[in-house]
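Researcher: Batch entry, complex prediction.
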Amino acid sequence: MSDLLTKATAAKEARTALASSTTDEKNDALERIAVQLAVDETSILEANSLDLEEGQRQGMSESLQDRLRLTSDRLKEMSSALRELKQLADPIGEEMTTWKRPNGLSIQQVRVPIGVIGMVYEARPNVTIDASSLCLKTGNAVLLRGSSTAIHSNRALVKSIQTALKASALPEGAVQLLEDTSRETAAKMFKLNSHLDVLIPRGSAALIQAVLEQSTVPVLETGAGNCHVFIDSSAQKDMAIAIAVNAKTQRPSVCNAAETLLVHKDWSANYLKALLDDLTANGVEIRGDASIVSFYEEAIPAEEDDWATEYNDLIVTVKMVSDVQEAIAHINTYGTTHSEAIVSETTEHVTSFFQEVDAAALYHNASTRFTDGFEFGFGAEIGISTQKLHARGPMGLLALTSSKYLIEGTGQIKG
Amino acid sequence: MSDLLTKATAAKEARTALASSTTDEKNDALERIAVQLAVDETSILEANSLDLEEGQRQGMSESLQDRLRLTSDRLKEMSSALRELKQLADPIGEEMTTWKRPNGLSIQQVRVPIGVIGMVYEARPNVTIDASSLCLKTGNAVLLRGSSTAIHSNRALVKSIQTALKASALPEGAVQLLEDTSRETAAKMFKLNSHLDVLIPRGSAALIQAVLEQSTVPVLETGAGNCHVFIDSSAQKDMAIAIAVNAKTQRPSVCNAAETLLVHKDWSANYLKALLDDLTANGVEIRGDASIVSFYEEAIPAEEDDWATEYNDLIVTVKMVSDVQEAIAHINTYGTTHSEAIVSETTEHVTSFFQEVDAAALYHNASTRFTDGFEFGFGAEIGISTQKLHARGPMGLLALTSSKYLIEGTGQIKG
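Model: Structure tokens for the complex:
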């Protein structure tokens, strides 16, 4: 059997025992993994060195090397995260709803694991531990497909996980690593509906697009964020400036950072200069529409493409708008349905914005930067879904669950 | 612009107004469609005749012609279904959950439409009305891609819908029909992520497989049902026989009909003959494992493929098993995670079966035939999902909804 089929079959076989495991058994396994990472520190760091050396030989960029690098501190952070995960409520087994039918059938919907999850990611070995632990906590088996450039690190980490699982009550086969990291095998994995219930790609837009293009297995999509802040005519000056600057600059590389500011013309008449000065002082390059460019010397003209671009950088597009409807129309045209904010003191404008903007998270008088599983209080995050099915917005443990109906009868047959 | 892009854009443009429409406006539109179908009866039936004549010229089978055929009575049934749909609760706008974060942010999750739904189906014009009305009730725009063999019927039905919408408060563009029914255009539609939020294929396994293979748009999959009835050693004789015969014979062509019976050897010792005689008397062909074939003259040997086959016909495979664990293992190997039943008086066996069998609906002492949106009391059915994401089992109106988070702040920024 191929590496893919061997590993996928092992994961699938672990699924039934995993689904029946208790919360205590799952938490015990997480604790054992946390301990094992410390026990195996030397061999994990040695394996990681092999990947880093190979990366340097291949001319891997400094930032990619940093993502690939494991250290004693980073291993300790992984163990801490595992122990925090233990504290979270176990969603599996929850009785979601129960009702009785006129024919006497009693129908109960209960929360269950999804089954077998295929995780596809790049050269970030921390995802190996993160994804495995979230899957185990929710009773799911996982087939990991990491990057070839992290294969030694991933192999060492999965060895620690499997050592810990062997000593636990959970099936050892619950976490599987694909050793064959070829594109051909990945393409087969994406179509392995017989073994995998869902694929979760984590990484660049190109990776996610490749999985979407090739897969027949359902995909839990986490996507791009072209987020906007709309400053209404009634917005408080200081609040609006603080939110816009925070959304743009607090961490420009992430998906919930703002890329475009939409500024009401009346507010602009008084405060636009203060806003643009503050952005400029924070090192932000301003690309504006005609009104902005003519008003502000440092601004350069925005091209059509700019409005649709997720810069992930200290660049912002600024557009002057006449009313909330123009702002909504712009967002629904160029946005990626991720996170959108309105700063306003006018209730009916907020209502329209909340009603009509199509996005996972809508903010009134707050920064878009709060779209995050931890900021939402979920205690864990699988990613931020920009699709409409299954889960939308920040995904916590519930996103890794499904349900089944249990029906109790007394001999009912269909007439 | 191509027919596909024109129609998809029109649907997308209708989405915002639709999402904001009230329950009364949506119900009024459904009533107007019900009325319009009666007004347009002559032209609809004429259009349908064109499709039927063409079908006959092409040698279309009688059963396909029957699915394609519209009659005055069938149009009246469509109008009745539209009026029943009016009575159902509108799920849109429901406040699903609200909580407050330590930083003062108030987060509310509300139920919203999915957006634009692509419906892909075969030569059954009733799906045109059924799918459109379910989408409208849930505030979704819909792009219909029916079969070329039903194009005149679909065009007439959509004309009636659009006439009704024009007189209603809903946007007229909410329901769009692809006139171009080529495979090339379908392939483009399946990848139109910029306009479509979800694809729902309704029809044969081949159709569903084609959509899954080609799509990058998320698919709401409704699948095959290879369902089992396990008769435990403690099962009551009459109840077990009644459930097995009902699950197999009451309507063998549907996905929730049973295809395999797993019979405990101790129960078999007393009652197997009565069961097999009853099935035979109901015209069922019996294919058995070695024990069954040696016991029952009329039984023919089952091949390996039989255990994985959804016959949709009066054929059943029968296997003798030693215990509930063997039954569970068989179902988890050959089943399609649709509907599975245990007939038993032994509580711990029922518990194991409910816990360990991986399926959308599990029955204790009832027929598998109840897996159905109407039998579950949903009042409507989009289909029966056999996937784990978004919706599992019978899908009612909720399956056509998503959610968004509305976050109220007082100037919060991320530190």
